[in-house]
Amino acid sequence: MYSSLSKSDAVAQILGKQVLRSATSIGANYREAARARSKPEFISKIGDCLKEAAETDYWFDLLVRSNCVPTSRMNDLLNEARELIAILTTIDKNAKKNR
Fold first, then answer.
1. What is the dihedral of CA 56, 58, 60, 62, to 10 degrees?
2. Contact at 8 Å (CB) between 17 and 2?
3. Whole-structure pTM over 0.85, yes or no?
C-alpha cells in the first residue's frame, strides 16, 4: 500500500510511513508475545499488538479522510485492520481471564 502512494504528495508520504511503522510493529510484537517467558509478558506484548493495530486503523482512516487514497481502495485494508483488532482483543481478554 505504501509503495503505491503518490511520491509527490507530502501528506500521503507522511501518513504512509506511519502506517508502515505501526503495521509492521504488530507482527514484531506478536512474535515477541509468542516467545514470551511468562503470562504477564505475553499479556503485555498482546496489548502492544492491540495498540499498534488501533494506530494502524487510525492512519488508514486519515489516508482516506485526507483524500490521499479513495475509500474504495482502502476498504479491504480497513476491514482487515478491524478484524485484527477484534482478534487481538479476544486474545487479550482471554489471556487476562485465564491468568
1. -150
2. yes
3. yes
- CA torsion sign, 11 to 17 to 20 to 25? negative
Going along the chain from its start, the domains and CATH numbers come out as 10-97 (1.20.1440.60)
Question: Do you know the residue count of the chain?
Answer: 99
Q: Give residue for cell 481471564.
A: 97
Instruction: Tell me which amino acid residue 12 is.
Output: A
Alpha helix ranges (H) inside 3-70: 10-34, 39-65
Reading the chain (99 residues) residue by residue, the pLDDT tens digits are 999 999 999 999 999 999 999 999 999 999 999 999 999 999 999 999 999 999 999 999 999 999 999 999 999 999 999 999 999 999 999 999 987
